[in-house]
What does this fold into?
Amino acid sequence: MVAARPLTEPEPRLFTWDDFILLDDEDKRELIDGCLVEVEVPTSEHEAFVVALASYLYFWAQANGGGSVLGSGYKVRIRKDRGVMPDIQYFRPGRSVPLQGLTVGAPDLAVEVISPSSGRYDRKVKFEYYQSIGAPEYWIVDLEDRVLTRYVLSDGRYAVAHHYDDTETLSPETFPGLAVPLVKVFPKVPATEAEPVPESVSDADPEPQPS
It folds into this structure.
């Protein structure tokens, strides 16, 4: 009698850049080590920040020789089994930007705005991805702490160039003439309601005196 072979689960399919590049525009999954990973649906604050910062970059670029400013949805190849879509990316004048996605090279700037569940992903995984393909700058935006951290590539590794809080103006030397007052692009801080002032003893109704 022939011994029965144990049943095994089929190996999960591993996806490649060729699969990733064919996804519909509405499909916001990213390619991480051969797996298509769901990306958290961005909040209105996230999207508002992306639009505001991209607008500053766009108008700066138009006044300084051009270049391309792209929003999330444009795919960047990291390697055969890895591909991502930065929230914002910028290509300097003269760069060729393929229609379907960047297969070779890196954007001159990649920006990621941290969502509630993406902190580790943006700070570690994508940090290493953009560093590995040689993106000259990587900006990470923390909406909760209201901080923009600017990393600059030096000898193949990222180094912190500056931590900007929302009281500062973003004006990196690598983008001469760019001036982004961050208080205008970070979400507005809701005004706190003033607590009622307790009535003082002198203003309170006098206690009745025994007759």
Summary: Residues 1-5 have pLDDT under 50 and may be disordered. Residues 61 and 152 are 19 Å apart (CA to CA).
